[in-house]
């Protein structure tokens, strides 16, 4: 369908508020809303940044686009109308057979550049659309832009549309190559450089990626394609209106796509996609990372297909975004601000920054106060006597005692005081402002302006743009008289195009001028906006908008021209005139408070002090671990859920009244529940209330998905479309680290059912999540990816918790997986039991043969399915190395499982003939502990973590023997306490009491059910947990500012009591083991360094020895194999080990970057022993040395008794091509670099008179 952007999309309505200076004609072309320096055509990142200089628009049919740095690129667009060919863009050297179309208008918004041309009897619109999507991370990360060619024909015409690009898009034209493939109806060309060098640039263009050019046929168009010499391809299109396939490729050629629309009457449109893909997009700290979109679409064809599918949604979002941004800008500083906004970069980044500063998230502040405080203290110490240093305007050179930096320090101190409630900092910031303004340290004597440099430069000046955060955050550090003073002064130093940065310069900074303008009175503010608009539209330059330009001719330079910087993505764009208040989607403020990234898709939460971790099974402390069936259903899920699954969900739902549940249970199979009940009678979940923040999670919740969830909803969470603050989904690609109470807990998990014949079926899942009809299951590739994730985050100092929906006790593959993971605990759901269970395999198996028998049966069941589908699976992934690696990871786990009950080694250790058969490392068998949870309505498990110890408490509401002879339930006793998880659970807070409906995920209390004794409830705030007995006391000293130019508060000195020693830890599992010290506030004694080296990613002993030079090889006294790819090399002394490590090449001392072939990794070996402590001393994974470190398999829930019926869904056979997540294959060994140290002891209090401290700060 033809899209008329002027009328139907309202862009003309948005930007045609034309006043005399905005709508002026140049060569009869109408420019809306103004004529910018350059028009963005395809701008998604620094390597996909294509522009059309404004002085080329009037000759658009002949003009070549440019890369942002100025290099010309070929991007041709032509229309063939009734046999006559018209050039619409870049028809340079096209020949006499091509006529130029006539340009009639040019428009721009924040996301679109739109050109309207006349080509004979047809009006053609070229819409270049680069989405800006701060709320949709998937859309924002895609490195592609759209070109939509829309046609409006007054009479019937035969029309064909052509577009092409050349190999200049890849940075250089030497040794280029072209690839082509069809993905369904989508034709995709890719251009690249053979044998390119990773991270190499030429003239700011990346040379290690691929330029992408694609389009797809429509019901009304026939798509053709060609590549080769430009003149041959264009000539064929001019003659026939079609393209004739790919000729032999030579550097300098083009790739072209053509649509034959046939006879067009009225409106019609076609669409192209252009992009630049870098598989290893960036190098961060030595490791390559790919784009976020690769988490959903591992291959470029899939990503391009999604991008084209997403057009209508992206278009709607862009119209809303453009309108909102334009409206806010115009409301703040008039029409001309609206003109400037679209030309500034990094809009999403600025909106996010404004949001974070405006939220006042107290929990976030509490988490990070100790990290932020040293920075505030630095400002206290160094904010008056400022050493010579560069400011953010490094081009101006270094300076000591710069007033603008002193202003920034005062505002920063005041901001820290208000954020944390430490009022001494607020007072100090206010006094610093008084010092620089009222006491005139930072002004001239007449207080007409702030000086550039104090104390003896009264004639100097600089724009005091650091006053803007004071206004933005309403801190009131400086009085209103400051802004009145600046408003008057800067009128007097204004040049032809604005105010220069300072008295030394003739150039201005657009970003800082807009910051300063936001602090002015209205008339001065409007002058600053007028100056920037005048520079932008003066016609004296054609660069992509520059933030640095000559503002005045006072020093002899020609004003109004940019300096040095093209299209610079400055993080301070010129629309910050006041708090914008843009929310992130669903109210999410970003990562969980305290979370910082470790590796891709992994998070970390750090917390000191005693912590309660509540583990629950169905749907509802300080942290909550959830084992699935959380309620991942939205308002559209009812349409997709199967009747059998719906009946099961209803049976256990706390949201349905009992009479409805009974009616559903009695519904005969031939009747439809969905037809019998209206949608409002069948609420599946309260997730929608979490999404729109009617309900909130007060504490972090870490969950796997269960067997009854909606795969579409989970895909929306993974893409970022859905977000709930404090909710964190653990899956095959995402783990979490909780550093709490002196213990590092690594959460690894996998949800869904484990059904053998479903292991190779993705069902309705469009990404790597498998499910359909309201149910979820696990695939073998998910298991392999979880192995990869676990290997990448391996740290022997962590305590590993394996969270699943299905019980490892019931699923042999999950059991083997937990052993391979070196898990200390497994936590799983309990099939809707009223009571939980706690066990280890040694305690429930009378012999090792019984244990082997369970694993052998599971292996046989798997092999039956594998032998049936093996050929099909291997063929499907033959060309995908990443998927093959993931499959091998999972199959390696299965191969470790014994084949018969009386032989084999389930732990991957050595086996031998005869009596040696089945010898195992039994530490995991005897020490790994498993918890199966009751439903949250009936009980819970609490892990109480304090001073390096984990105590466990499992509660259940009580046994129910009503099944015996049809006994009725025991009636409730009057006055008896409520069940252990009441409606008002601290984990979920609601803005208003709703007695008839429980909180999201909580069970409805049932009359007549016997209640457990009242239990202490987990507290919602971390600080309310009981303090460790050995915690040092601390008083609150009044701060002293160690600067003579500021007031000197006085107060008592800080005192600190020496902590007491912790009690001796209990011995492990009743055995006599050496004592392990617990975490405590006492400083730790220095650990004895090992005389061994840990070598990973090497599969045999000889290869390990060959890594060392002869002098070190001769000193090796012992070499032990730890798993399949890991070894420990022992020397006589620490000195010998250190010398051997020092002589290793650098690449052996750091982990192999993701996506690259594994390289040997060598580091000091930390011997943590072979035992594991009991509940009093569990701190880390202390598994035996010979346990395999490579295998890992996945879990979910079989749950066959529950009537969930997950055996019969056939799936859609989508296949799983290119599922390997962007080159993450090939990593097997645990190769996290460097030995890890234990947590440091808390620092002592600050000496008296040094820094402010809060009362009770500990």
Automatic annotation (TrEMBL):
Residues 1039-1050 have a biased composition (Pro residues). Residues 967-1098, 1139-1258 are annotated as: Disordered. Residues 1176-1192 have a biased composition (Polar residues). Residues 835-964 form the DUF2433 domain. Residues 1139-1150 have a biased composition (Basic and acidic residues). Residues 1086-1169 form the RNA-binding domain. Residues 1001-1012, 1020-1033, 1233-1249 have a biased composition (Low complexity). Residues 350-570 form the Glutaminase A central domain. It holds the Pfam family RRM_fung. Residues 1223-1232 have a biased composition (Gly residues). Coiled coil: none annotated. Residues 111-327 form the Glutaminase A N-terminal domain. It comes from the Eukaryota. PANTHER family: DUF2433 DOMAIN-CONTAINING PROTEIN, GLUTAMINASE A-RELATED. This is DUF1793-domain-containing protein. The lineage of its organism: Eukaryota, Fungi, Dikarya, Ascomycota, Pezizomycotina.
């Amino acid at each position: 369908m033809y899209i008329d952007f002027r009328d139907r999309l309202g862009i003309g309505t948005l930007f045609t508020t034309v006043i005399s200076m905005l709508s002026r004609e140049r060569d009869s072309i109408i420019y809306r809303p103004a004529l910018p320096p350059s028009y963005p055509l395809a701008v998604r990142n620094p390597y996909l940044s294509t522009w059309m200089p404004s002085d080329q628009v009037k000759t658009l049919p002949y003009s070549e686009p440019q890369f942002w740095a100025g290099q010309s690129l070929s991007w041709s667009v032509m229309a063939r109308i009734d046999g006559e060919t018209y050039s619409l863009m870049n028809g340079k050297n096209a020949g006499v057979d091509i006529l130029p179309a006539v340009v009639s208008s040019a428009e721009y918004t924040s996301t679109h550049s739109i050109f309207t041309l006349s080509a004979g009897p047809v009006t053609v619109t070229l819409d270049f659309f680069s989405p800006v999507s701060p709320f949709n991370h998937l859309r924002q990360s895609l490195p592609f832009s759209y070109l939509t060619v829309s046609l409006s024909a007054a009479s019937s015409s035969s029309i064909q549309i052509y577009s092409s690009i050349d190999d200049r898009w890849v940075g250089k034209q030497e040794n280029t190559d072209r690839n082509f493939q069809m993905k369904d109806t989508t034709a995709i060309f890719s251009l690249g450089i053979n044998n390119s060098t990773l991270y190499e640039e030429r003239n700011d263009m990346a040379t290690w990626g691929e330029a992408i050019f694609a389009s797809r046929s429509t019901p009304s168009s026939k798509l053709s394609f060609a590549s080769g010499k430009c003149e041959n391809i264009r000539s064929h299109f001019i003659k026939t209106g079609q393209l004739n396939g790919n000729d032999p490729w030579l550097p300098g050629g083009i790739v072209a796509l053509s649509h034959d629309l046939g006879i067009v009457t009225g409106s019609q449109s076609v669409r192209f996609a252009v992009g630049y893909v870098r598989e290893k997009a960036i190098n961060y700290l030595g490791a390559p990372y790919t784009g976020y979109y690769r988490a959903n679409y591992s291959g470029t064809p899939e990503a391009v297909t999604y991008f084209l599918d997403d057009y209508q949604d992206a278009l709607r979002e862009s119209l809303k975004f453009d309108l909102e941004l334009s409206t806010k800008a115009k409301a703040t500083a008039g029409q001309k601000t609206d003109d400037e906004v679209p030309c500034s970069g990094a809009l999403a980044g600025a909106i996010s920054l404004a949001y974070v500063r405006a939220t006042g998230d107290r929990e976030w502040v509490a988490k990070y106060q100790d990290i932020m405080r040293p920075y505030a203290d630095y400002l206290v110490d160094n904010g008056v006597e400022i050493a010579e240093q560069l400011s953010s305007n490094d081009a101006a050179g270094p300076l000591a005692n710069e007033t603008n930096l002193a202003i920034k320090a005062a505002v920063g101190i005041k901001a820290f005081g208000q954020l944390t409630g430490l009022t001494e900092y607020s007072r100090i910031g206010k006094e610093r402002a008084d010092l620089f303004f009222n006491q005139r340290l930072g002004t001239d004597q007449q207080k007409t302006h702030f000086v550039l440099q104090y104390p003896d430069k009264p004639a100097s000046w600089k724009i005091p743009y650091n006053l803007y955060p004071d206004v933005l955050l309403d801190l009131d550090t400086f009085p209103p008289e400051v802004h009145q003073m600046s408003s008057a002064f800067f009128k007097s130093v204004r040049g032809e195009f604005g105010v220069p940065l300072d008295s030394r310069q003739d150039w201005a900074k657009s970003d800082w001028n807009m910051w300063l303008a936001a602090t002015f009175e209205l008339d001065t503010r409007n002058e600053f906006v007028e100056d920037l608009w005048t520079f932008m539209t003066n016609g004296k330059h054609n660069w992509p908008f520059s933030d640095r330009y000559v503002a005045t001719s006072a020093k002899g330079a020609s004003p109004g021209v940019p300096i040095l910087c093209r299209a610079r993505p400055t993080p301070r764009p010129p629309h910050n005139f006041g708090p914008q208040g843009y929310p992130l989607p669903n109210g999410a403020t970003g990562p969980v408070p305290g979370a910082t990234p470790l590796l891709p898709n992994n998070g970390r939460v750090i917390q000191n002090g005693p912590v309660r971790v509540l583990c629950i099974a169905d749907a509802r402390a300080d942290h909550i671990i959830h084992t699935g069936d959380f309620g991942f259903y939205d308002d559209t899920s009812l349409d997709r859920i199967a009747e059998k699954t719906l009946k099961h969900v209803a049976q256990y739902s706390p949201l349905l009244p009992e009479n409805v549940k009974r009616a559903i249970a009695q519904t005969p199979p031939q009747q439809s529940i969905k037809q019998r009940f209206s949608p409002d009678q069948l609420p599946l979940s309260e997730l929608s209330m979490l999404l729109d923040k009617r309900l909130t999670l007060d504490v972090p919740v870490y969950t796997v998905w269960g067997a009854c969830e909606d795969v579409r909803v989970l895909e929306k969470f993974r893409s970022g479309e859905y977000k709930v603050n404090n909710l964190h989904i653990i899956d095959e690609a995402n783990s979490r680290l909780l550093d709490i109470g002196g213990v590092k807990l690594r959460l690894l998990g996998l949800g869904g059912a484990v059904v053998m014949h479903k292991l190779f079926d993705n069902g309705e899942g469009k990404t790597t999540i498998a499910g359909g009809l309201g149910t979820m299951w696990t695939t073998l590739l998910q298991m392999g990816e979880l192995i990869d994730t676990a290997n990448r985050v391996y740290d022997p100092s962590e305590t590993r918790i394996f969270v699943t929906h299905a019980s490892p006790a019931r699923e042999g593959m999950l059991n083997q997986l937990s052993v391979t993971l070196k898990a200390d605990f497994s936590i799983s759901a309990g099939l809707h039991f009223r009571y939980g269970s706690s066990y280890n395999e040694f305690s429930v198996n009378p012999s090792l043969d019984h244990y082997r028998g369970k694993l052998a049966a599971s292996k046989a069941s798997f092999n039956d399915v594998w032998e049936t589908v093996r050929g099909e699976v291997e063929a499907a992934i033959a060309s995908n190395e990443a998927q093959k690696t993931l499959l091998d990871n999972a199959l390696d786990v299965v191969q470790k499982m014994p084949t018969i009950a009386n032989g084999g080694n389930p732990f991957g250790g050595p086996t031998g003939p005869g009596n040696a058969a089945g010898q195992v490392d039994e530490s995991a068998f005897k020490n790994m502990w498993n918890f199966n949870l009751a439903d949250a309505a009936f009980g819970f498990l609490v892990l109480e973590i304090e001073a390096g110890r984990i105590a466990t408490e499992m509660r259940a509401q009580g046994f129910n023997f009503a099944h015996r002879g049809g006994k009725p339930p025991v009636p409730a006793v009057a006055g008896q306490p409520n069940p252990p998880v009441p409606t008002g659970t601290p984990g979920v807070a609601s803005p208003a009491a709703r007695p008839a409906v429980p909180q999201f995920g909580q069970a409805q209390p049932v009359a007549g059910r016997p209640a457990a004794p009242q239990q202490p409830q987990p507290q919602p705030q971390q600080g309310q947990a009981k303090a460790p007995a050995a915690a040092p006391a601390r008083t609150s000293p009044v701060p002293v500012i160690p600067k003579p130019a500021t007031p000197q508060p006085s107060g008592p000195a800080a005192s600190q009591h020496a902590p007491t020693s912790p009690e001796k830890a209990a011995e492990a599992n009743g055995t006599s083991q050496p004592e392990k010290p617990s975490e405590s506030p006492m400083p730790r004694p220095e650990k004895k360094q090992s005389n061994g080296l840990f070598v990973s990613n090497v599969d045999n002993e000889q290869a390990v020895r060959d890594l060392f030079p002869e002098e070190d090889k001769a000193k090796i006294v012992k070499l032990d194999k730890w798993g399949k790819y890991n070894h420990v090399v022992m020397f006589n002394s620490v000195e010998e080990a250190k010398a051997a490590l020092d002589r290793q090449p650098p690449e052996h001392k750091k982990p192999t970057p993701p996506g690259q072939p594994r390289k040997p990794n060598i580091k000091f070996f930390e011997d943590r022993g072979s035992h594991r402590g009991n509940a009093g001393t569990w701190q880390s994974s202390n598994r035996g040395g010979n346990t395999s470190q490579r295998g890992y398999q996945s879990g979910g829930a079989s749950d066959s008794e529950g009537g969930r019926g997950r055996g019969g869904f056939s799936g859609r056979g989508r296949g799983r091509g290119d599922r390997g997540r962007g080159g993450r294959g090939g990593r097997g060994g645990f190769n996290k670099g460097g030995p890890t140290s234990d947590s440091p002891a808390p620092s002592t209090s600050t000496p008296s008179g040094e820094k402010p401290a809060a009362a009770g700060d500990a």
